[in-house]
Amino acid sequence: MRDTILKALISRRVFLLALSIAAAVCTSLLLLPPLTNSRQQSTHRERMVDTEGSYTECPIEIIGAETAKRKILLGKSFSDDDDWLKGLTVSVKNSSGKPLTHIGVKITLDRAQGQEDQGAATWDLWYGVSPFYYKPDEEIPPPKVPLVPHGRVELLSLSDSEYGSLRSFLTIQNFPNSIERIHLMVCTIGFADGTAWNGEMYERDPKAKRGWKSREKPKGRAA
After folding, report:
1. What is the rounded CA–CA span in Å between residue 150 and residue 96?
2. DSSP string covering 117-147, please?
3. Cβ-contact 23, 61 below 8 angstroms
4. How far apart are CA 72 and CA 138, in angstroms?
5. FRET label pair with 24: which of 13, 38, 120, 152, CA 20 to 30 Å apart?
6. Could you give the angle at the alpha carbon of 133 between the alpha carbons of 182 and 85, nearest 5°?
7. Do 64 and 51 meet the contact criterion of CB atoms below 8 Å apart?
8. Neighbours of 199 (CB within 10 A)
9. Is 165 part of any domain?
């Protein structure tokens, strides 16, 4: 009889302990969503993408941008989390009148307040190989990408692997996780007729210092 009572008491204690653990787990699960939402809300800030700093005259133009989650109005702020740059895609229209072999867009990332003295960082998006990549005495090979005809809108995208590399680069450069503003500008263009652009029009000249000579006077840049 005594053994039976003892076993009953032990079973009761085990049952109460299991019930307490289950209640604690349920309470934790009920509290989890608010905590997660609070964390997500804390990273939402005002972001902006613009074309400030671009050349005042350029044969092609940046007409839009979007990310994996939204379309972006250039120069207009929007709210998003710290991963808002993932899937960044820039739309560039060829308004030059000539087919293109290369488009180079530079992304300039602003520092956060209090870090301005450390300087901004830049990252490039390329379509095709820049003609300025080749040495003065090196022959430029035929393009390995389809030509971009006049009037076409080409999309330059930041792949997931490039986004990871960008994040690693920014960490090395002591950037914060939260990037609030970036600037886009067309920096290099290659044309199918063998000319190129980098703030002004160039033509190939092996005798020149960089293998290129200017075809016009330098153009001014926007402030």
Report:
1. 6
2. GG--EEEEEEES--GGGS-TTSPPPPPSS--
3. no
4. 40
5. 38
6. 20
7. no
8. 17
9. yes
Which amino acid does the sequence have at 104? G
Residue with tokens 């700093």: 53
Placement of tokens 């005798």 in the chain = 207
* Backbone torsions φ then ψ of 47, nearest 5 degrees: -120, 165
Host domain of residue 172:
45-214
Assess if residue 174 is contained within a domain. yes
Decide the pairing of beta strands 100-109 and 71-72: unpaired
The radius of gyration of the chain's CA atoms, rounded to the nearest angstrom, is 28
Residues ≥6 apart with Cβ < 8 Å to 157: 87, 88, 89, 90, 125
Q: How many CA atoms lie within 13 Å of 115's alpha carbon, on the beta-carbon side?
A: 14
pLDDT tens, N- to C-terminus, the chain (223 residues): 444 433 444 454 544 445 455 555 444 444 444 444 444 444 789 999 999 999 999 999 999 999 999 999 999 999 999 999 999 999 999 999 999 999 999 999 998 777 767 788 999 999 999 999 999 999 999 999 999 999 999 999 999 999 999 999 999 999 988 899 999 999 999 999 999 999 999 999 999 989 999 987 655 554 3
Number of domains in the chain: 2
Query: pLDDT digits over 149-196, tens only?
Result: 999 999 999 999 999 999 999 999 999 888 999 999 999 999 999 999
| 170 and 85 in a common domain | yes
- The answer to whether residues 1 and 68 belong to one domain is no
Q: How far apart are CA 86 and CA 30, in angstroms?
A: 31
Q: What is the pTM of this model?
A: 0.77
